Amino acid sequence: MELGLIELSRLQFAMTAMYHFLFVPLTLGLSIIVAIMETVYVMTNRPIWRQMTKFWASLFGINFVLGVATGITMEFQFGMNWSYYSHYVGDIFGAPLAVEGLMAFFLEATFVGLMFFGWDKMSKPAHAVVTWLVAIGSNFSALWILIANGWMQNPVGAEFNPDTMRMEMTSFFDVVFNEVAQAKFVHTVSAGYVTASVFVLGVSALYLLQGRHMDLARRSISVAAAFGLASALSVVVLGDESGYSASHTQKMKLAAIEAMWETHDAPAPFTLVGIPDKEARETHYAVEIPWVMGLIGTRSLTHDIPGINDLVKEAEHKIQRGLVAYDALMTIREQRDNTPAEVRAAFEENSDDLGFAFLLKKYVEDPRTATPEQIQMAANDTIPGVGPLFWAFRLMVALGFSFIAVMVFFFIRANFFQMQFPRWSLYAAVAIIPTPWLAAELGWFVAEFGRQPWTVDGVLPTALSASHLSVGDLLITLAGFVTFYSILFIIEMSLMVKYIKKGPYMDVPETATWQERHEHRLRTHDGQGPFAPTPAE
């Protein structure tokens, strides 16, 4: 299979996936923020909260619709561009996606109409329940999608059947409660909450700078700062959980992220900065913080974290065991029911490493004829791109800690300084609106690029997963996707800018009337009005 075909297939899927994920974080977070605002409205009966709910819900709706449109094409790509992957692991990977479509997507799709058009047809508590169901459905969709993705990172609850030549599920429970999937879910949705909080914060800061919609902006900042602070702290804590999980499920990815070429004595240091050199297998000008990596990766002071060189040697041994399984598999395939028991026993003993033998197909048609040099090259292929992973991870982490600082600042100003914000901080809030999306895309890059050369880690190499298409077909479809998605991006940005400029246009008279009455009540009960008590002599 041509290398160009694999790279183009990867490029097309990466483009569609990362573009789709521009919409997902805002959908996840904004749905919860809108539900919180409507809950406050139900509890206080203050029209300003109804106006806030409707305004931010309108922006949520624009983002939601375009997110759905871009997400549908991704699932079609599994059948179009990755047909062997779909055949090989479809029984496992397809199950959570089917559950997502039947349960989560239908839940949010059913209630999203009631959320937007049921304001005057339902009671306030009932409508708030509908809004929460939309939010839960959105987050529930993410759960099942990340369960599917988590299985690709850590393929538990499944085994290869030599008679059907496919992976088959052995435990749906193990697939659902896969530790990688659960860590990815909570980390991803928390990142979405931060994204929405920064978005609400930035738009509200823009209104304050313009002197428009002041009451809505200040209250929105209060909600965004509190929700965003909790979410930003969660992202860091849950990111630590992902690192701990990778230390025993994806050791090569963790070593590559840290540019850890050699196994350090426990506890391993964390490389703050440096210049990874994959050819020389060393990191130049490394600045290390003692013990930190050991604590993150193993949560102990006594356990080692294996380095890349030791993991490459381990991969060589796995390729050798995989060749035993591959040889037995070919015998089973030829003799079927007449296969000797010792052959099946040899396959069962080494089947966990069958995928490592498939790495040799990049160099030779029959892995059993591979030379020691080819085995060494295949083992070296298990090293992902260390430099890009190293810096992408550090930039993502730096952005994560910056979000904590921003949210702490606005939380303090909102709660202890009577909602007074320096103008420089408002300009900064507007300027950082794009940064959570950058952090989210970097996170997905680390997760997916760090898994290479595998589509399913340790099971199916990426080079074997693609469909047998022509390069011309892929170039045409890639150009089509780029054009279509560019148009959608322009539509999204135009609509979002239009409605942000328009501001909260719904329930304006009701809110203004209530605000006037509320200010009148304050004036007559704060010691200044005609009914104020007379001070004692």
Automatic annotation (TrEMBL):
Q: Known EC number(s)?
A: 1.10.3.-
A Gene Ontology molecular function term for this protein is:
oxidoreductase activity
**Transmembrane residues, as ranges?**
20-43, 55-72, 92-117, 129-152, 190-209, 221-239, 391-412, 424-447, 467-491
Pfam families hit by this protein? Cyt_bd_oxida_I
Alphabetical keyword list: Cell inner membrane, Cell membrane, Electron transport, Heme, Iron, Membrane, Metal-binding, Oxidoreductase, Transmembrane, Transmembrane helix, Transport
Its membrane topology, per UniProt?
Answer: Multi-pass membrane protein
- Localization per Swiss-Prot or TrEMBL: Cell inner membrane
**Would you identify the family this protein belongs to, as annotated?**
Belongs to the cytochrome ubiquinol oxidase subunit 1 family.
- PANTHER family xrefs: CYTOCHROME BD-I UBIQUINOL OXIDASE SUBUNIT 1 (PTHR30365:SF0), CYTOCHROME D UBIQUINOL OXIDASE (PTHR30365)
Could you identify this protein by its name? Cytochrome ubiquinol oxidase subunit I
Organism field: Mesobacterium hydrothermale
